[in-house]
Amino acid sequence: GKLARDLAKFLISLHSFPTAEAKGLGLHEDNLAQSANKFYRRAQLSWGKLVEDYPKLVDRETGRRQEKWLEEIHTMDLKLINRPVRLCVIHGDLGPPHILLHPKTKKLTGIIDFGDLIISDPTQDFQFIKLLSVDLYQKVRAAYRPVPDENFDERLDLLLEHRKIINLVHAIERRENEKEDVLVYRDVRKF
After folding, report:
1. Model confidence over 46-96: pLDDT tens digits?
2. Measured distance CA(182)–CA(19) in Å, rounded
3. Angle at Cα 98 formed by Cα 120 and Cα 26, nearest 5°?
4. Peptide bond into 146 cis (omega under 30)
5. Relative to the CA of 49, which of 99, 111, 131, 172 has its CA 20 to 30 Å away?
């Protein structure tokens, strides 16, 4: 209901901010191909570190599946990047910690943390909404204007696959103790 309409209204306002004006204010435009290649290299390095640190945990078959999955994601990234995408100003980190709701009414009271503002693909602002609730996402999407381009859903689904990789990469990069090693193990077994 109202939360979906309010989130859509916020996104419409943000995504319609003139990109030329945003660039004049110092916002950078995301180079989607460069970002995709950087993401792929980081995931490969983290996966290689995991295989090196946990040879008993990551058997050859798991290793091959993961490498193949990373390659497939990267190939899909590069194909989608070559299709038309309307870049716009995005929040860049529109997750639950940055969406403020009134504790009793659950009405939207604010959006915070604009430190990741960038000119990029608007699907990035929808990913956490869809992860939080498919129903909420569908309602936000129905109220969102302009209607997203024909590749929007495909890019969003791919971005959600990225989220799985990002979670694994963060677990690998940040593990500092045995408790975190268990989390890495759990994430690896998902593949």
Report:
1. 888 877 777 777 777 877 888 888 899 899 988 888 888 889 999 999 999
2. 44
3. 40
4. yes
5. 131
Distance separating alpha carbons of residues 112 and 89, to the nearest angstrom: 15
Rounded to whole angstroms, how far apart are CA atoms 40 and 179?
Answer: 27
Q: What is the DSSP letter of 106?
A: -
Q: pTM of this prediction? A: 0.83
Strands, DSSP E only, in 20-60?
none
Residue 150 β-bridge partners: none
As a residue count, the chain comes to: 191
Per-residue model confidence (pLDDT) at position 130: 94
Query: Which contacts qualify for 6-10: CB closer than 8 Å, 24 or more apart?
Result: 6/107, 6/108, 7/99, 7/108, 7/129, 7/136, 7/140, 8/139, 8/140, 8/141, 8/142, 8/143, 8/144, 8/145, 9/143, 10/108, 10/111
The secondary element (H helix, E strand) that includes residue 119 is: strand 118-120
